[in-house]
Amino acid sequence: MTILQFFLWSLLKIIVVVVVFLLGVAYTVLLERKLVGRIQNRWGPSRVGPFGLLQPLVDGAKSFLKEDIIPSAVNRPLYLFAPVIALGCALISIGVVPFGSTAVNGPGGFHFFEIADINIGLLVILGITSIGVYGIALAGWASNNKYSLLGSLRASAQLVSYELALGLSLVGVVLRAGSLNLREIVENQSKHGILSWNLFGGFQFVAFFIYLMAAYAETNRSPFDLPEAESELAAGYHTEYSSMKFAMFFMAEYGNMINVGCVATLLFLGGWTSPFGNLIPLPQSFILQALLPIFWFTLKVFSFLFLYVWVRGTLPRFRYDQLMNFGWCYLMPLAILNIVATSLWLAYK
Amino acid sequence: MHLILFALFAALCLAGAVNLLFQTHPINSALSLIVVMTSLAVLYLLLGAEFLAAAQVIVYAGAIMVLFTFVVMLLNAGREERTLGSRAYWAVGFPAVAVLLAILATVVLHIQGLGSAAFGDSLSNQPGQTNLEQLSQVLFTNLLLPFEVTSVLILVAILGAVALARHTEPERTVGK
Amino acid sequence: MTHILQQEVPLALYLLLSAVLFSLGIVGFLIKRNLITVFMSIELMLNAVNLSFVVFSHQWHAVKGQIFVFFVMMVAAAEAAVGLAIIIAVFRARATLAVDRIDLMKL
């Protein structure tokens, strides 16, 4: 495979993945509105298209056509740049996620279902997530509004503190797999279906719980959505944003939700592998062999997103000191205990 | 490929560093430093240090610089003020820096036997051994003691930071 | 086209870049009047030194250079935490970040 072919194939993969990802983001918004609606005993969007399925497209058109207001006292370059950082970081991390079986390869060992196969894939995702903080922090600061500034201060403190718990919760999984390559981590849990997933067979349920909590805090989602707590801070860091720039923050938030779901799926739920293991024999057809793993992967990510929405519809918001206390005094020691227990168990084995 | 990437990110690096000097607002300086650090991460990747590249982004760009921006926002630091301090550094500092740079450049350009870096280089001679495995083998066998001592250093730093930044509570008067 | 794609980069260029970054760090340390920016210049110098460590580790195929960078990063993290705490304490006491105004110890 020449360099030119490689570039063209990669470009094609990137375009397809980004388009599918953005569609996923749009329909996650719809899923959330529908589900929260049902939880609160109402319908959710139901007018545009069958079952409201065209609602995301109409919403997109609406935010695109709205008047774009830039307040006069903002720090203009940073104000304009902040949403780009937020959305960019949300879009980049999908690049190292393997979302389909790596057994199905193109010529020259070319992976169809993964943009880049990197041996430090997990660290890359963590790094991009930690850069994403700047989008929120700068948005609040550049807006020159006290509510925005409070929101972004809250966000940066919260993200930095929960990143510790998040990173430490993943160490147990990495220890078990002995690799930071996401593909190898998945292959490590593919032997006996659901029984060899890290969540069940690997006894990483404590780590999964910590990851879940930290991920809610990292994506600023309820019950930890203090940076945009509407009852205290108007809308938090994006108070001064309107039209498409607001929509970019919105897309970044849901994109991050999907990313977090992908990482949870890869690390704890066995990635693209079937939960039934070898009980169901592999289909003969090549197309089914390629498509079935993608189906399992999407199903797992969507069940994770379902949990997200369910939690949002159920739990009230934490107070800020409770949030910090919970992160530093409970989640982090628990994560360290989990690492010690996992490594002792692995050494004993 | 290596040359193109090197030229691109070295230029970004220098531009960021120069911009750090010319910006008067601390938050712009902080952002230029982030650009420098992330481009350095790419250069580390080119030199076959994948783990350091990731650590550079996570630790420097993602944690240390977030702290910096956080403090700038917290203290609401404005533009630099023109103060009437001593200007001796103009007379002494700049010639000294120029001399230092000249000495470093001559030394670097006269080193014999300095190799070159190609695309896809890695440190290891054995195939299949990743940078991470090499690093951890040395770090957790030969250099275990320094590694463990750093954890004490970080603990001390945390305690120091908490002690320094804590509000000293005003003394409570009895009876109120 | 293929020629430029396979071109190797001499390590001396990396070292030069590191030297220039280091000097820019010193210049920043000298001309900046804001406590936080002065601190940032120190970080820039540390980064420049890290780059040359990685270059030499590549030159000698020795992983210890990279481990040194790892330690420098940890020390820099500790230093940033303490340094910024000091800056906050100074700001509380003096209500300024200008280095020339923090002169109580001067005679």
Can you tag this structure with a few keywords?
heterotrimer; B: 176 residues; mainly alpha; Four Helix Bundle (Hemerythrin (Met), subunit A); 6 helices; 69% helix; 1% strand; globular; C: 107 residues; Helix Hairpins; 4 helices; 2% strand
Compact description:
The complex is a heterotrimer of chains A (349), B (176) and C (107). The longest helix of chain A is centred in the first third of the chain and has 37 residues, at 3-39.
Question: How is the secondary structure organized here?
Answer:
The complex is a heterotrimer of chains A (349), B (176) and C (107).
Chain A: H1 3-39, H2 55-65, H3 76-92, H4 121-131, H5 133-142, H6 146-177, H7 182-188, H8 205-218, H9 230-233, H10 243-268, H11 286-314, H12 320-348
Chain B: H1 2-22, H2 26-46, H3 50-75, H4 88-110, E1 116-117, H5 131-139, H6 144-165
Helix pairs in contact in B: 1-2, 2-3
Chain C: H1 2-5, E1 9-10, H2 11-31, H3 35-60, H4 64-94
Shape, principal axes of CA atoms of chain A: globular
Mean pLDDT of chain B, as a whole number? 82
Report, as a whole number of angstroms, the end-to-end distance of chain B: 74 Å
Helix content of chain B: 55-70%
Order of helices and strands of chain A: HHHHHHHHHHHH
Q: Spans of chain A with pLDDT under 50 lasting ≥5 residues?
A: none
